[in-house]
Amino acid sequence: MALYPMSKQVLGFFGWLSICFMAAALGALASVQAGAFYQSLMRPPWAPPGWLFGPVWTVLYILMAISAWLVWREHGFRKAGLALSLFLVQLAVNALWTWLFFVWHLGSLAFAEILILWLLILITAGMFGRRSRVAGALLVPYLAWVSFASVLTWAVWRGNLHILA
């Protein structure tokens, strides 16, 4: 049962969507030159093409927003403040990765940071799942993609030590 009236739920949904896409925009600022840089790197044969990242992340950010919104609308910050705050922290950590990797070329820090992101997503998904099974499940594709991205980060970093510190 929703905690808020329908009008506030709609505003809340667009609020969570805006928060998620603000994080995406911060990452996008860092990835303006990412396409050319990504193409210049030695990548494993299983690395996806650069054009795939945008559509995948768009879907993931939408799923993240819906997940946070479901928890918020059922429990609010009063009862789910820790879970929602952790969601916001992992969102900030998510945005930081692009800067570490594509702007500052810090492969080792990007790899360490994505492992922290993975752990934060796992904990957030667990906390959300205890409040809403659907909300927790909506974070599973995000966790799966970041799992893949972690392995890719490792492989690209290790194959480009001369570029990525």
Give structural notes.
It is a single chain. With 165 residues, the chain is mainly alpha-helical. It has one domain: Up-down Bundle (Ferritin). Helix content is 81%, strand content 0%. Helix 1 packs across helix 3, helix 3 (53-103) packs across helix 4 (107-131) and helix 4 packs antiparallel against helix 6 (140-159). It is elongated and about 55 Å long. The protein starts with 5 loop residues before the first helix and ends in a 6-residue tail after the last helix. The model has no long low-confidence stretch (mean pLDDT 95).
Concise overview:
The chain has 165 residues and is an all-alpha fold. The protein has helices at 6-30, 34-40, 53-103, 107-131, 133-138, 140-159.
- Based on secondary structure, the structural category is mainly alpha
Low-confidence runs of at least 5 consecutive residues = none
CATH superfamily: TspO/MBR protein
What percentage of the residues does DSSP assign to strands (E)? under 5%
Q: What's the pLDDT, averaged over the residues? A: 95
CATH topology call: Ferritin
> Shape from CA axes?
elongated
- The CATH class name reads Mainly Alpha
Q: What's the alpha carbon Rg, rounded to whole Å?
A: 17 Å
Helix and strand pattern: HHHHHH
How many beta-strand segments? 0
Helix content: over 70%
Biggest sheet architecture: none
Total helices: the number is 6
Distance linking N and C termini = 50 Å
How many structural domains can be distinguished in the coordinates?
1
**CATH A-level architecture:** Up-down Bundle
